[in-house]
Amino acid sequence: MKSLKGKTALVTGAAMGMGKMLSTLLLESGCRVALVDINRDLLEETGETLSKKGISEAFVCDISDSTAVKELVDTVNTTFGPVDVLVNNAGIVRAKPLLDLTENEINAMIQVNLTAQFWTTRAFLPGMMERNEGHIVNFASAGGILAIPNLSAYCASKFGVIGFSDAIRQEIKRQKRKVGVTVVCPNTVNTGMFKGAKMVTGTKILTPEKVCKQVMKGIKDNQAIVAVPSVSVKILTPLLKTILPVGVMDSLNKALGMWDANDSTVGRSA
Asked: What mean pLDDT do residues 68-76 have?
């Protein structure tokens, strides 16, 4: 998908953070953008701001509810027509040891971060397959490649996103359809989601703009994975996990500060 001009994009979690930034860049590239979020007040504010950038419309939806997603398809199709670019960005985190997590917190992270991507993809992929054109962007995380303490449910959901993306990419290729799939694996991004977290040795917090510019390039170039920073997340981390014994890898994670990086994470209130 070399050009996005005139295409319709749908972005989940669009009210703030990465979703808002990516929606901005999509609008600036000439897309019509369906802004989807569960937070009505923030979504309305974002919708009003982004309406100055281009053609956009706000849609309140709980994407973890498969019935609500089916209804969303009809509403968006009526407003904009078929969706060409689906961005599964919505996500939540609760940074706690496993035994301190509530059942509701565990369920919410799995449902919003992972299961919802099944519902949205099942809803919008058939149209892309029929038209033999489109692109799906699934947000995972560096935490979907290397798990660390206090993020058991979050990392499990993000590992799942990577597996989900790999599987559907191959299913689409097998059917010889021209629909791209990109999974996004950034390190910690300055959106407030990991507010209070300590940065791991040798890393620095990323800006939403930096990551989203890489995502835009990933869409246009049909990249299977967008990792930020690329060398450490895409190459070095998987390589070390493969060649180092588990005990050595654990010791390395501890030495770099990964074991206590999220002890002080409070996240954002919204």
From this structure: 97
